[in-house]
Amino acid sequence: MPGPLPPDTLPCPDLTVEIHCLRDCVRRALQGMAAGEPSSDLFAGVSWPRLLWLARMHRLLPFLHAAAKLAGEACPADVLRQLTEMRKVLSLRRLFRAKEIWGHSQLLEREAVPSLSLDGWVLGELYYPDAALRETGDAVPYLISPEDRPRALQALKQTGSSENAPLEFTHLTRSLLEIRRGWLPPAIATRAGDEEGFQELHRRSVAVTIAGRTVRVPSATDWVLHFCSLIRPDAWFRLRTPVDLALACRHLAPEDWTALFARAVTPEAAGDLAVSLAAGHDLLGLDPPLPVTDRLAGRESLEDRRRALIDSYLARMSQAPAPSFPERGEVEEKDFGSIARYTYTPHTAVTRMLQLAGTGPEDLVCDLGSGDGRIVIAAARDFGARGLGVERDADWIVRAREAAAAAGVADRVSFELADAFEADIGGATVVALYCESFAYPRIRQHLRSRLRPGTRIVSHDLVFPGWPPAAMEILVSEPLRLSYVYCWELD
């Protein structure tokens, strides 16, 4: 039985060109990129798989699409096609998200539960020059006071739903309803984690109208404070956060800036706000607002912290949000069942994953967490490969074997009831993965210790932090569903 795996400390390739390109795409969009502005040089020297991977990690693919449209032949036609299809789906999903928010607000209003919507949809409507540049995410988050939380959950229960089982307001989307317990950091005088703090946030909130129904959302000042709490030296944050911050700042009146810094509990907290505000704008190549530069002027210690925050972030920008492996015995490091969950991969995505890996008759395709067996079955049926599915759930093993027999490939595939860290996968030439994000650094080390150089690894939706793929593709795998497929090669 293998022992605990060390953290993934393998170096990340130099992504300076891609990082500079992505930041420039955002800066140009925020400064109002003119339709005729030359942008063919923007993508000079970039690796498109790396750039797409980086933009997706930071939730900035819509900005990349906006720049790619103006780049002419500098953007490969196939990449532009993928980004254009993605933009169409995101625009349609915005319409469905509006319907979901409308339905949630009706439900909460009926139960007289005050709430604040924290959704990306409202951020896009309020602050973005083009609302479709703001992705909505997979959940619909709300802030509700602790006192009202039980009533909100009871209202959900009456609809046959719960916080973890989403309401289905449309036939094509099912977004999770998230009820947040807190929102603003402790260094701010008004805390959202208690009843009094929620009431103050609600009092300052503004209204957004959706089909005649009013939804309350935090004020621009509160959004700015929230984003500043995320931009700090000890945290990995998506570049999307400084974008949100910069656009919310544009909606602050002069008196709002005074109130903003007055909200800090201590002078140190006010300094932290100024550093986060300045660094957030610097990361986008934008000038910080005048009230921020005035507060930093002549304060060398704050300027040093500002530069240190920027340098630290740029050095870690490619290291995707990979939370630490759970501790306190909650999850054993060898227990793959705790780091993988069953989520089916659409058949279109399965085919494209195997194509990206260059799967052929000489390959042994291994799926770690094989579920219903669709990936190894497709590898055998459509590509002539052999397949091995590793699964910890005996029921899935039975179903997968039945599916393989029905597909006529039972002689070319096998399914093993085993832990992925213990299964013998040394002969695999293609490995398919779908794990919880925190597990990917450990999985990478495990695969490197078991597999030969040249082995291809494919994943659906989730990525290895700090390891850009050799190939990546965006596809519409089902109505209103985007799939992101990746392929890496072990060296």
Q: What structural keywords apply?
A:
491 residues, single chain, Beta Polymerase, domain 2, disordered N terminus, alpha/beta, 7-stranded mixed sheet, Rossmann fold, 3-stranded mixed sheet
How would you describe this protein?
- The protein is α/β, with parallel strands linked by helices.
- The protein folds into three domains: 16-75, no CATH class; 93-276, Beta Polymerase, domain 2 (2-Layer Sandwich), CATH 3.30.460; 336-489, Vaccinia Virus protein VP39 (Rossmann fold, 3-Layer(aba) Sandwich), CATH 3.40.50.
- The chain has 17 helices and twelve strands.
- The strands form three sheets. The chain has a seven-stranded mixed beta sheet with strand order 8-7-6-9-10-12-11, sandwiched between helices.
- It is globular, with a radius of gyration of 24 Å.
- The two termini are 25 Å apart.
What kind of sheet is the major sheet?
7 strands, mixed
Terminal CA distance: 25 Å
Q: What is the alpha-carbon Rg in Å?
A: 24 Å
Could you say what the CATH topology of the largest domain is called?
A: Beta Polymerase, domain 2
Contiguous low-pLDDT stretches (5 residues minimum) are 1-8, 189-194, 321-337
Count of individual domains: 3
The SSE string, one letter per element, is HHHHEHEHEHEEHHHHHHHEHEHEEHEEE
Going across the major beta sheet, what is the strand order? 8-7-6-9-10-12-11
Give me the CATH architecture of the largest domain, please: 2-Layer Sandwich
Q: Write down the overall geometry.
A: globular
Strand content: 5-15%
The counted number of beta strands is 12
Number of continuous helical runs: 17
CATH class category of the largest domain: Alpha Beta
| SS class | alpha/beta
Proportion of helical residues: 40-55%
- Average pLDDT value? 83
